[in-house]
Request: fold
Amino acid sequence: MTINKRAVRSVKKNISFYIISIILTIIISILIVAPLSTGHNMTKVINDFVEKYKAEDAEFVTYKPISEDDMRTLENDYDVIMEYSRYKDVKISGSDLDGLTVRIFDMPEKLNLCDVRDGGMPEDGEALITQNLADIHGIKVGDVVDLGKYSYKVSAFATKADYIYMLEKLSGYFEKDKLAVMVVTHDDYDKIDADETGYYSIKYNRDNDKEVREKLNDDYVIASYLAATTNTRISMPVNEGDAVSNMATMYAPIMFIIVLALIVMVLGRNIRNEQYLLGTFIALGFSRKQIVGHYMRFGLLPGIVGSVLGTIAAIPVTKAITYFYIAYDFEKINYTVRYDVAAVLAALILPSLLYCLAIAVQASKLLRKSAVDLLRNTGKNSRAIRIMRNSHARTQLKMRVRSVLGHPGRSVVTVIGVCVAAFCILTGLIMRDSLDSLMHDGLTSSVKYEYLYRLNSLGNGTPDKGEALFQNYYEVENNTVQLSTQGIDEGSKYFPDETDTGEKLDLDKYYLASAASETYGVKLGDEFTFYNIADLKEHKVKISGVVTDNTHCYLYTSRDNATKLAGVDSGTYNCIISDKKLDLDKDLVASETSMAVSADTMQNIMAPMNAIIIGIEVLGIVLGVFILYLVINMIVSETGTNISVMKVLGFSRKEISNRVLNVNHVLVCIGFLIGIPAAYAFVKVGYSDTIENYGMLLSPVVTVKALVLGFIFTWITYELSLLLQKRKISRIDMVESLKENNRNE
Reply:
């Protein structure tokens, strides 16, 4: 059939357009399926894990001990599960595990259970160890692990429900090669001669945590309370899936819609440029329905092929991204990759649907004309011809101006294409500069002490060694990051004495660290509301200033104000701070925290981010090349008659390229400028949860170097697209192009 032969010839003639359209459809299908599936998959995997192995809802410490009988009473009266958890840290030196801290837990029975793999539960002289410890040091089940004074046979590998994300201290940073968890029997645990850290774990079976906390505080006086939502070892894995999903929801659909819109616009213009063929089909007796159906095939080809191949390709990509997040950041968790059904359906259906719909709308619009008008190609846009008609400027300049201003739709497509490339490239560069700035300048902390000793009991007055500090924790509504009040003495040498605006601190007032200000959305002069972790009592204070600190969510005030908020006697302290290590009575110290962060630790934290940055930059260049190739291919096709005329007049390929291809330089600049704020805003949103997951507040950093490199890479992307099109100019047949008489200029 004639119309079918025409379809085959049209595809062969525009084969490069269909190949690029298919590739772009594959890429956007992967973008919509893989990130969304990864985020939802991670959320389900982690939530199922913490539920199955009974991760605590909170852990707390009290000044008065809770007996086993009292815990059973609380469990019965308030429908909760409670268990006293304890561990001892063994620091190893002089063996294969040199420099490693092994946190040895007493075997849990009710909460924070272990996922045991490749073996069985330990007996006396045996231990469960984490998979990362085994992988790093080549340890197998049945091997004996030497910890110096103690050695244990590995009975199995395990992941503990409250140590999915390996942190030595909650105020510290992820260091899987410096900390390992081991679980032993009760008898073996009691034989270990090391300082013990103990706390109570609790899981609520109903929504009564406020009531339980009030009871615990009244009877036992809560010293600290850490909800699972603010426990980074649990909350970071739980929240990571949502973070990936949110990022994907913000990024993938936008890219999906932009690329689809570009292809739809090009398909629509292709149909409009062939309107004389529609008149021919009508003259040959084809119905309008047949003609629309014929042209819809051109949308089905890239739509079906691209979406099917893209969805298939998204399967290994989803597996790779899921593995990247879970295997790098978390302890080993067994999981099955699942795919987001809505994303898969969108990737399979939307491209074909939108491509065909665009073609149908454009064809139906053109078919309202009579066959004679279509054959005569009337209704052409004469706007381009009128531009600079009476100008005495050079012909080359006129052609460039007419090409840009006379075809606004085409110019918009070009700007969007450049913007997509610039956005991805600049996003990667801004993220890279932000991390480099952090690595070079270090964490901006407002504290100047190196060691913090939290005491088992409250002190009053002035300690014999170090400086007194009253530190207490609070919750902020609709936020999982805990607020820490710092009750300090006038003239302290370990804390700032001025705000970020240079104003001297008045400790009778209240000041927020910059990380807290950003995290809670509270500024100078705002009234700040927070709640006591023990009884959820509400407190309100007015913020008198902000102190530069991107690592801590602190509220600074005097010790008297801090103790008043906590409801304890004036002059009380519960911490001792010092710039040197202190020799304190071990019976008085509950925990010791070092504030130092090593360069290796920072590198460890930033490694996964660097991988993401490289991926975004590569994606930007690839998308940019293909999108701009599509746009420039459209320009060449629409100016085929002009190119033929220039060939007849003896213009060289270089001269033709200058007049046809090199007309969008100003559009490249416009697209790049639009990409700058878009990339900055995207990175800012992406960094919004870093204080929660990584213990530091990252901020976008835009440098001149990033802008220059971004522009160079964007321009290179544009030039690569031009280079690929120059060969097409050489292949344009002068006679055939002139015969088509499809002049749109």
Q: What stands out?
A: The radius of gyration is 33 Å. Confidence is low (pLDDT under 50) at residues 741-745. The first helix runs from residue 2 to 13. The chain is about 55% helix and 15% strand.
